[in-house]
Amino acid sequence: MMSELRIMAGVSALALVVGVVLWGRWQEQRQQRLTRDLIPTSVHDPLLDEVSEIAVREEPKLGEIPVSTDQGSTSLAQAPDLRFEYDVVLRGHFTGNDLRQAIHRSRLMTQGLRWVGQHQGQWMDVTTQGGVNFEQCHGLLPLVSRAGRISEARLTLFADEMRALASHLGATIEPGEVGQAAERAQQLDRFCEQVDIIVGINVRFSPIKSPLGSRLLKYLTQEGISLGEDGGCHARTADGQDRFTLIRQDGAPFLPVNLDHEPISAVTLLLEVVRVPDPVTIFKEMFAVAERLALVLEGEVVDDQGERLGVRQCTTIEKQLAQVMGTLETQGIPCGSTLARRFFS
């Protein structure tokens, strides 16, 4: 009897250990997924922000892709801008549906592409205009993104891909000059590296007074800052654009399962300068939130070196942000503009 009891006790203990290990691994994998989500790694290019989803490459499927019959709606688009895009012109007679079908058949890699043409004097996304006839369409490839500049080899490949697409449409193509586009991409990439700035403000809590995640998030809600699905907290505009974000300084996401028992030692408020329309004003707002957060939860506002961050230091930062705004304005990429959000996504 004692032997059987010992065996049963051993099996139970082993099952318990295995269960704890599996639970730990599941939690670790879940947290890793959420951490990766905190910094988006979307495969689409920022220039797709205003383009219909059909512009993203569709994987081959059996049968034809759906044909759009809606001719009453329009999807306005920006005119081609050769400062920032490589342009290949398609000439012929085709509809938006024809172009969609040709993209499907040619298996063209359309990541980041815009397809624009003029109809009744307005630029619009050709792929959304199912039955509208076009004599000319511009296939526009972005010269840069946060992933880097487009290479001359990729530009050449794109021109070749467009020739294959044109054959499906019975159209001709007029590609832009590859060498000039590659040179523009290199210059633009250097410029983007100089102005692509993210400003951070840290709020550090003492080890014995670190707030629980639930208490922190409760206060942030009062500030109009909400927890997102990515595990970060967001202060957003009425149309859903980020003004600034707040994350744990250690980079871990805020997990609902941990909020009630895990103290938070420090948080960082982040401002993506080029993606907001008035970074100076929003920086001031972000600093004010950080100070209130430190006051209510007994923390301290510090910079990345752990030094106290006060009004004098913030004034210096505001001047630097104003200079960046002016530089972007001069280059035709105003802070917070559609173009800026495309490039710096």
Order of helices and strands: HEHEEEEEHEHEHEEEEHEHH
- What is the CA-atom radius of gyration, in angstroms? 26 Å
- Mean pLDDT, to the nearest integer, reads 81
How much beta, percentage-wise?
15-25%
Describe the largest sheet.
6 strands, antiparallel
Outline of the structure:
This protein has 345 residues and is of the alpha+beta class.
Supply the key terms:
345 residues; Cell Division Protein Zipa, Chain: A; 2 domains; five-stranded antiparallel sheet; 8 helices; disordered N terminus
Describe this structure as you would to a colleague:
With 345 residues, the protein is an alpha+beta fold. It has 2 domains: 46-191, Cell Division Protein Zipa, Chain: A, CATH 3.30.1400; 196-343, ZipA, C-terminal FtsZ-binding domain (Cell Division Protein Zipa, Chain: A), CATH 3.30.1400.10. The protein contains 8 helices and 13 strands. The longest helix is centred in the first third of the chain and has 37 residues, at 2-38. It is elongated. The chain crosses the membrane at residues 7-26. Its main location: membrane.
Write the layout of secondary structure elements.
Elements: H1 2-38, E1 85-95, H2 96-106, E2 114-119, E3 122-125, E4 133-142, E5 144-145, E6 148-149, H3 152-169, E7 172-175, H4 178-195, E8 198-205, H5 213-222, E9 225-227, E10 233-236, E11 242-248, E12 266-272, H6 279-296, E13 299-302, H7 311-330, H8 338-343
Antiparallel strand pairs: 1-4, 1-7, 2-3, 2-4, 5-6, 8-12, 8-13, 9-10, 10-11, 11-12
Helix pairs in contact: 2-3, 6-7
